[in-house]
Amino acid sequence: MMVTRVAVLGIIVENLDATDQLNAILHRYSGYILGRMGIPYRGRDINIISIAVDAPQDVTNTMAGEIGALSGVNVKTAYSHVITKT
Q1: Percentage of the chain with pLDDT > 70?
Q2: CATH number assigned to the domain comprising residue 23
């Protein structure tokens, strides 16, 4: 049995050179991603991204850890109370 939780990852990219690495990470976890919204904030030269996922909590934590390890990229995760057992 697999237990998944719905979560949202809030990502702020201050180092635009990290974009390719970030996209590679998101591609690896694409099977868990429900949706993605990106907002380029040109006035501050940053990108703001939100990612909605439905994944096992350890997968979400690992993905957030990989993203947070990128230089100039910050990530925070908010979990819902929606838990699915399959």
Answers
A1: 100
A2: 3.30.70.1150
Tally: H helices and E strands in the chain: 2, 4
pLDDT of residue 36: 97
Per DSSP, the residues of 39-78 read: EEETTTTEEEEEEEEEE-HHHHHHHHHHHHTSTTEEEEEE
Helix/strand/coil for 33: strand
State the total domains in the chain: 1
Q: pTM to 2 decimals?
A: 0.92
Residue 22 Rama label (left phi>0; alpha psi -120 to 50; beta): alpha
Say whether 6 sits in a helix, a strand or coil: strand
Q: Which domain holds residue 29?
A: 3-85
Residue-level pLDDT at 11: 98
